[in-house]
Amino acid sequence: MRSKAAFAAMLLVLASCGERSAGNSVETENTAAARVLEVDSFLPAWNRPSGGTVATLRFDRTNFVFSASTGNGRDLRFERLDGSLLPFDVDVWDSVAEIGRVLVRLDATLLLPRAAIRMRWGVDQTSPANPSAVWSGLPESVGLLANSVPVDDFENGNDTTELPDRPVWRDGASDSAAISALSFPSAGQSRPGTALHVAYSASSPHYGVVATALSTGPRILRSLDSLVFWTRGTGTLYVAFEHLTGSVGPKAWMHFALDTSWTRIRIRPSDLDTADGIGYNDGWSAVRDSVTDLTFIVQDGSDLWLDDVRLHGIDLDDLR
Question: Contact, 229 vs 309, CB < 8 A?
């Protein structure tokens, strides 16, 4: 796999050329630009199912001059070298923050050695992006591979997640609260496999915590679609995305009453509570470009069970 630096080098020359041929016309850098990208420069080895996949292209100030693009990404195009358009979706494009994330559909022919695609920008503002076509016809397994991250299914018999850098779950409690060591017993209630279980005692405003770092440092998760997990227990559960410096920092959370039966929970960024500053709850916009930890906070009950925790809308390389 080519390095990110190689991909950056290909893009950084975008403003250095004068006139170039594009299709049946000649375009200048003042109106449009194009760059050929070798698929091996941006598609990781883990995302190469034989029938085709969806590639994620990430842009920042090191590999793209955002002032050369207009209209929040509506001027982008991705195509084969013969000029035929590839299905793509501009997932994130923020010219002010200089952050971009684009999904491009690649069929089996583009997974062959030396395959390449062309990226264009600076063209008209009528975007041909087609998000539904990006995923159309692909099996669910490819979608889970290319656009989600399994945090933990708790089937490995220890306290280590399935994240790229395999961080460890940790637990703790505030003053006048107590939390037991994490255990991984049978999930119970006819749910197969094992799950994470913790017994706790924490009356408001005190709390217990179960958390894991999502990577080795802050990561941009603007494209996050949702966090999905199964849970049961008693009391109130706060689910937080945090940017921790040491043990404190801003967070974005939502909370709900736990049910004693296994329940599938799906949390989108739009579901998170309004920022109020209480407990460092500063809202999604405050942490989305620098998420460090996923945290589960419990109060006013006695147990928490967690299983099959997965992030949708990102991939493994978003956390590397």
Answer: yes
Amino acid 128: pLDDT: 86
pLDDT surpassing 60 at residue 269 = yes
Whether cis (ω within 30° of 0) applies to the bond prior to 44 is no
Where would I find the beta strands (DSSP E) of 39-166? 52-59, 77-79, 88-94, 99-107, 116-121, 148-152
Structural domain containing residue 292 = 149-319
The answer to whether residue 144 sits within a structural domain is no
Q: What CATH code is carried by the domain that includes residue 289?
A: 2.60.120.430
pLDDT over 70 for what percent of the chain? 88
Report pTM. Answer: 0.89
Residue 61 domain flag: yes
Give start and end residues of each alpha helix (H) in 74-139. Answer: 131-135
The pLDDT value recorded for residue 41 is: 95
**Locus of tokens 């630009």:** 33
Q: What is the number of domains present in the chain?
A: 2
